Amino acid sequence: MTDSHVSNSANPDVQVLLIDDSKSARRVTASHLTSAGYSVVTASDGFAALADVVEHRPDVIVADIVMPRLDGYQTCALIKHNPDFQSIPVVLVSSRDGLFDRARGRLVGANAHLAKPFTEAELVSTVQQCLADCAASAATEANSTRAKNAIATESGAEISADETQVVSPL
Predict the structure, then answer these.
(1) For position 125, which CATH number holds?
(2) Residue 150, C-beta contacts closer than 8 angstroms, at least 6 positions apart
(3) Number of domains in the chain
(4) Backbone angles phi and psi of 57, in degrees to 5
(5) Which terminal residue of the chain has fewer beta carbons within 10 Å of its beta carbon, N or C?
(6) pLDDT score of 160
(7) Is residue 98 situated within a structural domain?
(8) Which ranges of the chain have pLDDT less than 50?
């Protein structure tokens, strides 16, 4: 399951799940993230990472694309197809930086693509942007839900449990 759990006191509330089959890449990337104040959980492959997603419910996932058994694309797709975890931002990392690689990442639901080699600043900036985008999306969704509820209350309508239908009292 989890290879390690490291945190820095600067921002231990934000947890990053780091998935990479290379021990040295995990070590370096985890060091960059902990230096920036993130709590880091590492996994050596996609299968172990899936268990860690359930156990730790990370705020963001950074996953290498090229891994044996379950690659980054497959791992991302499985996470994004699960309603309980689909809102977790995923950053795919790879030495493959072509248009096709980026497009394939978007198709499986990745929020960002980071090309190797990357600097600590690029990594941290990408993670911060994903977290900011996720927070903005959550705020927009909450505002939309509040607006739907207000309209329904004023009109006497009811909103279905899944919030996809407004049922008129007429």
Answers:
(1) 3.40.50.2300
(2) none
(3) 1
(4) 45, 65
(5) C
(6) 57
(7) yes
(8) 1-2, 6-9, 168
Question: Is 164 part of any domain?
Answer: no
3-class DSSP state for residue 116? coil
How confident is the model over 114-124, as pLDDT tens digits? 999 999 999 99
CA gap 154, 150 in Å, rounded: 6
Let me know if residue 155 belongs to a domain: no
52, two tokens? 């860690």
Cα four-point dihedral sign 64, 68, 73, 77: negative
pLDDT in tens, 32-70: 999 999 999 999 999 999 999 999 999 999 999 999 889
Q: Is residue 169 part of a domain?
A: no
* DSSP bridge pairs for 90: 61
Decide: 36 and 131 in contact? Cβ < 8 Å: no
Give 52's contacts (C-beta < 8 A, 6+ positions apart).
1, 2, 17, 41, 43, 58
**What range does the domain containing 13 cover?**
4-137
Structure-token pair, residue 41: 């959980």
